[in-house]
TrEMBL record:
This is NADH-ubiquinone oxidoreductase chain 2. Its main location: mitochondrion. Belongs to the complex I subunit 2 family. PANTHER family: NADH-UBIQUINONE OXIDOREDUCTASE CHAIN 2.
Amino acid sequence: MFYNMSNIMFLMTSMMASMMAISCNSWLISWIALEINLFFFIPIIYMYNKFNSESSIKYFLIQVISSMFILLTINYWTMNKQYFMNIIINISLISKLGSVPLHMWMIQIIESMNWIQFLLMSTWQKLAPMILMFNFFNNILMKIFILLNGMVSAISGMNQMSMKKLFGFSSINHLSWLMLTSMISEQMMMMYFSVYLLTMTMISYLLFNFNTWMSNMMMNKKKKISLITISMIFLSMGGMPPFIGFIPKWITIQMLMIKNYYFMMMMMLLFSTMNLYYYFRLSYLILILNNLKINYKLKMTSKIYLYLYMYMNMSLMMFLLINLNF
């Protein structure tokens, strides 16, 4: 599906538009770049199957309404009328991100996506609005959204039976950590985003190769993917030590303690523990409930996946620990 010239063209143009939105000093040019990104990302959503037209329309309407408010805010900005400007533009960008309380549109449309589309939606499409929101930082409003994202994602993910919805709420939880790191520094935010992107890419690649929805909890033998590797990546996604997903959270917690944000730190630890619970549950279902069907003698393809992930995990951990100076 994804490996044809039209999809590659749409994807590359969408990514270039996001980079243009981030790098421009003019808010008007950034707004135009966001619209170009929207224009070329909608065909990527629609091309998976014919039932994606509803998802494409929902995504289009949410993004267009948010963009209208951003354009309105830019107009007031140029007229030096800044009353509520900061709040309006933050809420508009929050809507584009699929953040709580404006998150249900994202949870609804990801059900009709495949895992590669979900990867793009939960990672790259969030980058430009996040960095633009960093320029309109509102401390009180940001803390409210961080706590709402952490709480809603932790509670809502507990009773999810759909793998995509579970990862949708997980992406909202990681969004709360991205917002939290943006309060510290842009470098911290980019470090967390890079680790999240790497882990999410691995998960999406593995799940993209599953043939049916039943494979959400079982190994696809035709693909010969190691269950151990999948479980390790799931636990890394939840922030389980000593995996790579734990390192950015650990560093963020240290920085919060330095800045005396103890309440925020305790709440985020609580929400992350709840988030980690359903990754434990997922790993348990994969490794234990399916144990009669597991072939513990790993074949060469499975060993390559396992060793590659372990090597990348250890290398990135060492790199972050050596190069981060406090």
